[in-house]
Structures are given as C-alpha cells and as structure tokens.
Amino acid sequence: MTIEKVAIIGLGLLGGSIGLAVAEYLPHITTAGYDSDPAVRQRAVERGLVGQVCADAADAACGADLVILCVPVGAMVEAAGAIAGVLKPGAILSDVGSSKRTIAAALAEFLPEETVLIPAHPVAGTEHSGPDAGFAKLFNQRWCILTPQEGTPPEKVQALVHFWEALGAMVETMDAAHHDRVLAVTSHIPHLIAYTIVGTASDLEEVTRSEVIKFSAGGFRDFTRIAASDPVMWRDVFLHNKDAVLDMLDVFLTDLALMREAIRAGDGVTMFDLFTRTREIRRSIVALGQDDARPDFGRGDHAQGN
Amino acid sequence: MTIEKVAIIGLGLLGGSIGLAVAEYLPHITTAGYDSDPAVRQRAVERGLVGQVCADAADAACGADLVILCVPVGAMVEAAGAIAGVLKPGAILSDVGSSKRTIAAALAEFLPEETVLIPAHPVAGTEHSGPDAGFAKLFNQRWCILTPQEGTPPEKVQALVHFWEALGAMVETMDAAHHDRVLAVTSHIPHLIAYTIVGTASDLEEVTRSEVIKFSAGGFRDFTRIAASDPVMWRDVFLHNKDAVLDMLDVFLTDLALMREAIRAGDGVTMFDLFTRTREIRRSIVALGQDDARPDFGRGDHAQGN
Predict the structure, then answer these.
(1) Which chain A residue is nearest to residue B74, measuring alpha carbons?
(2) What is the count of structural domains for chain B?
(3) Residues B88 and B191 reside in one and the same domain
(4) Has residue B150 been placed in a domain?
(5) B89 is in which domain, residue-wise?
(6) Beta strands B170-173 and B143-146: pairing type?
(7) Are residues B198 and B274 in the same domain?
(8) Closest approach of chain A CAs to the CA of B127, in angstroms?
(9) Do A165 and A21 share a structural domain?
(10) Which of A172, A266, B22, B119 has its CA 20 to 30 A from that of B305?
C-alpha cells in the first residue's frame, strides 16, 4: 500500500506537527487538514501546517489514503462521524489519542466495513497546545504505539509503521488494553499528580502564591510545566481511561502511604532504600535517548549562557 | 563587617558551586574547604573548587569570617562540632540545608556564644551531586532564604545578604518554621511524590521496566529527574522536616482523593476546572524568571538541533 495523501483532522500541537513533519520528511505526500475552530484554520494556513486547509472535514478526508484524527479523545467519535461517509475504500483511519481501548471500540462500531482502523499514539508532546505549538521534529526518537485489532491486514499496519518511522519515530505494537495500563503509569498518573499538587499549592492559606512561585526552583516548577498541558485533552483522557488510571492510582497511593508512615516513624532506612533505587531508572531513560542528559534538562543554558 | 575568608565544609554540588562562584564573582575573598571524603577532596583540588583544600575541617574554618556548612542536614551538627572550637569571634556560621527549624535549634545549643548563626537555604540545585556537579552560575536568579533568629546583629545579616547577592542570588528573610512549611510545598512534597511514583513504576508486574523507560516521554521522565537527587540529602530532609511534610502531604492527599472521586464519577467539570486553573501559576513562574520559557524546558534543543 502506498500513501499519497494524508488528511489531518485537528490542527493543534499534534496535528500541526504531523503536517510539518510530512512536509519535511515525506515531501512527496500531499496533506490536507481541517480544524473546527476557524481561527486555528487561519493560523494553519499562515504557518503552512498542511498543504491544503479545508473548511470542512469531509473535504480534507476525501481521497486520503490515511486520515489521522488529532482531536481530544472525547471529540474522536464526532470527528470520525464527519468523515466516515467520504472515506476511500481501504483507507487507514488512525488517531493520536492517549487512551485507546474505549475509543477504538466506539469508532469500530460505526465505521464503514472497508475502513481500516489502526489506533495510534505517538508518545510525544510539550506543555504547549494549539496551531502555533507544532514543529516537525516532535516525533524524533520518540515512540509511537499502534494498537491494531486482530485481523487488521498486515500490509496496512506496515504502511502506518513506515509512515511513523519516516517522521523519526520508533514504533511498537501492542494490545489497546495494555497500552492504556502502560500509559496510565508513564503519562496519566504523572499528569494527574502534577495537576493536583499545583492546585494544592495554589490554594494554601499559610503559604502565599507569591512564595510558591518564588521558591518553585526547589522542584515544584517541574510539576507546573506538566500541569500547563491542554485541559480538554487531559479531561478526556481521564474520562476515557478511567479504569486503568484508578487501578494505577491506587497502587501509587499504597506506596505513598508507606512512605508517609516511614516519615512519621523516622524510618530513614526505608527512605534511603527507595531514594537509591530510583536513580537507576533515570540512568536508563537517559541512556536510551528518552531524555536530555544535561543537568536540569539543560534548562537555562540558553537564557543564562552556562 | 567585611568578609575576607570563607570556609566551605562539604564540597558537593552546593559547596563546590559556592567555591566556584566566589572565585568568579568575589575574587578578593579567599576560600578554604573541607570534605570528609578523601576522594572528594582530591576532585576539589583538581577542579579548583576552593583556594585551599584542607584535610581537616578545623584547618579550613580557622580564621574564616564566614563558615558555610554544605553537608546533608543530618550531618550538620557533627560538622559544626568539628569547627566550633576554632571559630573566630564574630564569625558567621551558615549552611545551605533545605530544612531549617530543627537544625537551627540543634546548632544554637552548643555553639560558642560569640558565633553568629545565620541559617540559609539557597533554593537552587540540579539532580546531580558530588564534587563534579557544581558550577559558578548555580545561584544566578535563584532565591536564597535566610532565617536569622531575633537578636542577630543586623550588620551580620546584611553581610550575608550581600554575599549571596554577589553570587547572583535574590535574598529573602523569614522565620525558620515558615521556611519549612513553604519548602515542604515547593520542594519536599514534589520530591517525595517523584521518588514514590518512580518506585511504583519500577515495581509493577504487568507493566515492564522496559516499557516504563520507553514510554517515559509521556510525563514520567520529568519525575525521574527529581527522583535521581541525592538520597542521603533527601532522607535527612524528611527526617528533619517531618511535621511540615506530613501536614502538607495530608492536604495534597485530600485534594488527590477529590480528583480520584471526580475520575470515578466521570466528573469532567471538576477536572476541567482544575486543569485550567493550574496553567496560570506556570505563566507566573516563567514570567518571574524562575523557569525556562521554552517548551519542554528547551530540552533536546541541544541534542536534536531544533
């Protein structure tokens, strides 16, 4: 299967980055895009996020070999509904959602039989969102997870694998339910915790907001970056990946209760043991190119000329 | 009061950075340093962290106008004991510990009466530690909190303020107990949470460690940086700032329970409300120069040439 035209529905951080990445790494592929917000469409034209910005989702999807839904998880079904009627037989319908099981089931229910649904999740992003946030290198050295259902034609899966690899990503295939549990740990719970603690710190009476901001370099500021992520996207993730998130949250809460008890009891041995073990995983993440090796992420090198 | 000689006890990230910063910004001040680890002393000589590396803490402190204890909080009393006998009358004894109330009380108890104790906490650091981790600009644009007791001679406090300002820091003075509650929120709880979730993720049975590492760019990797911080330092912080940490942890746990219930109940309004509010504090932190404004902390700009 050859992909000649890609349609991108939703032109925010992810959709815009895919459009820019295709232009850079797969220039022979034409792209068309749509966003429900006219102001976003306008910026997409100005930034050249896709070859053609359409005022209608169906126009963008018409004739595409690959349609990628880049909207919040909660808007996927509606977005798919708007294009289902014009999908070319044999076209791949994919997405970039951070939660896969419920969405794949919902989409599969009403899509035309000839449409090949291959859910995908590029594990990449920044805390910024919208049509100005995207850039072509977003997927470089990042993993993209595909969750095809059994029976999906292998040549279609292969075509999508090649597409993501061409954008710089490494691809792994897994079951949608497993994806949701893995991402609950590596992404959803970290976001939930970050949002919550930033909320906690903002609302304290005895510690002022000004103090929280001033002394945030002690660790808190890292959480504020994650907690600046797109609210609609994240609300939808928690609404759709509820079971896995609640399960993993309870494991975390059990561990946190153990640490609370260690602090209460003055049990330095338990603390030291945990604090030593956790260094190892950081080293592996850096060694495998999944994070910047420089101290503090290299933060400030630019501004302060270190 | 004029500071002509500074002694630095403990030559890790903080002590080493102070030594390098004095050489760069206050070159007329002489520095002497000591570390209990001979290998650290050796590296301190090689890197020139201080003007003179001594094999004995008392030798380093002898004749100093300002002695700064840069050891983990749990080692402060022993470090102070080793130099108390040689402290020059009127000398300032300070530190860089992340917890202040219990330590200030412990030190005050056995110090000679002529010694001026002014606890300090520069809110700066990276996840690295040891004699190779320090750099002269660590304190640039960072806050340093002083917690002098009532009755401390103002000219001594002023001398320490000027010292830290010369190293690039902004200085704020507050009560030790208030310091401990502010830092519990902006630093200690974030570290506790990060250590705990990295431990949780490392120990899961159904999600492998390899998956956690691969898909860490979804948010988790940020927590691993903080959880790579020095284990001894952090164990001591939790042992010494127990009350404030437990209080703040309980406020956080209450808020997290509310979010858990919102997820369980599918209450998107509560989620959206929190996720929207938390963006504001990030903007203020960036606006006040306490974090890098670039997406993702500017991470990867160096490696990937974005």
Answers:
(1) A268
(2) 2
(3) no
(4) yes
(5) 5-175
(6) parallel
(7) yes
(8) 6
(9) yes
(10) A172
Q: Is B173 on the interface with A (CB under 8 A)?
A: no
Band (pLDDT 50/70/90 cuts) for residue A305 is very low
For residue B262, give the H/E element and its range.
Answer: helix B242-265
- Is B305 part of any domain? no
User: In this predicted structure, what is the pLDDT of residue A204?
Assistant: 93
Q: Let me know whether B140 and B217 are in one domain.
A: no
| B2 touches A: beta carbon within 8 Å | no
**pLDDT at residue number A133:** 96
**What pLDDT, on a 0 to 100 scale, did the predictor assign at position A304?**
37
Per cent of chain B over pLDDT 70 is 98
Whether the predicted model's global pTM rises above the 0.90 cut = yes
Length of chain B: 306
Residue B299 in any domain: the answer is no
What DSSP line would sit under B101-138, residue for residue?
Answer: HHHHHHHHHHS-TT-EE--EEE----S--STTS--GGG
CA B73, CA A218: separation in Å to the nearest integer? 16
Q: What is the pLDDT of residues A249-269, one digit of tens each?
A: 999 999 999 999 999 999 999
Model-level ipTM above the cut of 0.90: yes
Q: CB–CB of A215 and B186 under 8 A?
A: yes
Considering only CB atoms, B278 lies closest to which of A206, A227, A292, namely A227
What pLDDT is stored for residue A303 in this prediction?
38
- What pLDDT score does B306 carry? 33
Residue B302 lies in a domain: no
Size of interface A-B (CB pairs under 8 A): 371
Residue B157 is which amino acid?
V
Residues B121 and B119: their CA atoms lie apart, in Å, by 7
Of the three residues B116, B143, B175, the one that is the final residue of a domain is: B175
